[in-house]
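ok so for the tutorial part 2 we go from a plain amino acid sequence to predicted structure tokens. step 1 is just haveing the sequence, like this:
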Amino acid sequence: MSYTYFTLTLPFSEVGPNEMKMIFLSLSVFCHVGMNAAVRAVVRMGIYVGAKVYFIHEGYQGMVDGGDNIKEASWESVSSMLQVGGTVIGSARCKDFRTHEGRLRAALNLVQRGITNLCVIGGDGSLTGANLFREEWSGLLDELVQSGQISEEAAQTHSALHIVGMVGSIDNDFCGTDMTIGTDSALHRIIEVVDAIMTTAQSHQRTFVLEVMGRHCGYLALVSALACGADWVLIPEMPPKDGWEEQMCHKLSESRLRGSRLNIIIVAEGATDRHGNPISSNTVKDLVVRCLGFDTRVTILGHVQRGGTPSAFDRILASRMGVEAVLALLEASPGTPACVVSLCGNQAVRLPLMECVQMVRKSFENNLNTYKLLSHRKIDSSFNVAVLNVGAPAAGMNAAVRSAVRVGITEGHTLFAVNDGFEGFSKGQIKEIKWGDVGGWTGQGGSLLGTKRTLPAKHIDKIAEQMRIHNINALLVIGGFEAYLGLLELQAARSKHAELCVPMVMVPATVSNNIPGSDLSIGADTALNAITDTCDRIKQSASGTKRRVFIIETMGGYCGYLATVGGLAAGADAAYIYEEPFDIRDLQSNVEHLTEKMKTSIQRGLVLRNENCSENYTTDFIYQLYSEEGKGVFDCRKNVLGHMQQVQTHTHLSDAYHIFVCFVGRVFANTEDSACLLGMRRRALVFQPVIQLKDETDFVHRIPKEQWWLRLRPLMKILAKYKTSYDVSDSGQLEHIVLIRVNFSKLRFIHHLNAE
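step 2 — the prediction. this is what the tokens look like for a chain of 756 residues:
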């Protein structure tokens, strides 16, 4: 295992009035995509609180060897690293640190530089090694005193070693966090490869077997199979039953008979059968060729999954965790246990490090159950469920429709597809949609059902008539703010139309992420990746040009989510949004800030503007103001991203996750809770009556009255070197692990393919 480090010195004011010494922070990084964002965040947050920051190059080896491996970091030294994979400060395997003598040398090097705080980024091996170092710390200092290498006073001054960990692992196999740094980027690499392979597989009627990483953990294999609609998946956690070979081949053959021209099989590298025999990608290929005669190819992704440009999610996750790690060290005391900062839902948490390390992560229940639902069919019919898209198209809509259709069919319902939203509903553009009709939908952007912004109020009579004609017993609406308004109008019309007294559920799907009742919407992640990718290219285009500032306009209506979070992921210097009013003085201050920045080695600026942030301070106005005020110091360019944020040719992974919709059979529904929005609130998915969300909504500007991501704006400003306050009231608090044991034998998961 390889590691990377840096150290941080906190100011006297953070230490305490009677402790006139400097505290250092050392960061260990196991090389994964997204690590550099964490390095950048810790360095800049450390400098923000008045600290000196030091890199330890080449990981634990650098800590053991000392010398020039430990160098002071500056604000500029972490510039332009957000979009770089791996770790820019080096990583190396270190056998010496596994020995007591090696850890003794490392302790000496740390004490000589005043290092008493260690921040570790890596997997369980990295964290376990750091915790062992912490446990041995007092004994190591005693040995150094006895050998005369340090004084008694130095040992007393550095008597406690504090540790904070951040988890970096593409396997997402660490207990206590929903996502580890690097996982989302690895999934993006897999999906990109699958999208590319599917075109050639479709053309040549081929079967492709993809081998992905996961020696002991099948997270990458399972979630990528769920996201891309793979036909079959093999993972270590659930060895297939005896006879799986015949079952898989039967399902592949059925898929071809229904007209599918390709098959995708995903195999985790550690997959085995029930008897412990390895199941390799070549074994699966030979099986398909021998039994079915299909033209079959194997693709082993290998270290491609570890590299490349970090996704927007990984950059934001790593940045938030880096800042949280600094805060945790600021609050640490001699009795504070080593902790890990992680993400649970949408909330930062701190967990005891060794509690996490000692528990094997088993977080597959929901994904396994979902994959089963999307791959196993029932025949008996129960209720008629209509599915429609409403509002502007958003990447992920098709994946949501596919999931809803297959879940509904699995539960025994008949699904009806409504074309062109409420307008198409009123015109009778309704037809039954079958299992195979949604094959291949996960990778397609936009809305294959068709979607319009038309609200139902003026068509309510015709919509009620169509519901009666088709005997619709439940309604699923996937869309943006118009879908939310539409559900409110349908509920209000129930008193006049009994046909509308059925269960109704809305799933938020909009790039703007402006729906009350949900922290995140389908499509927002894809839009953020589009913004981040474009900003990366724009910055790269200026790599040979000095002193240039780019003004970029994002979508979002009056909601500044894309501008703010996109700015955080892209490393923007400023982001103008409606929710945070600004005036000419703020614009002038930003120009002055960029003018000072141009005097450093970072001679490039990036400014994002939400499209409706101000009626008067338009993109053209800001561009002209920056051009005029920056004359002689920097020049400007502007770019309006437009609809490229809205529709992608493929769906990014976070937007391809399943939509779990279960309709309960009933005769009549006219209560508030029978018209709900399914949203993500902090740590949980919750159903909320839409009528109860009215008080949380600014209907004029089509945004929620309270938005969680506004708390990220100070973080963005800090990392851009602005003087600002940072509210730590929402920072993570030390919690304990609650282990939920998953009994795989009791799961109703069946190894059927995702039959397309």
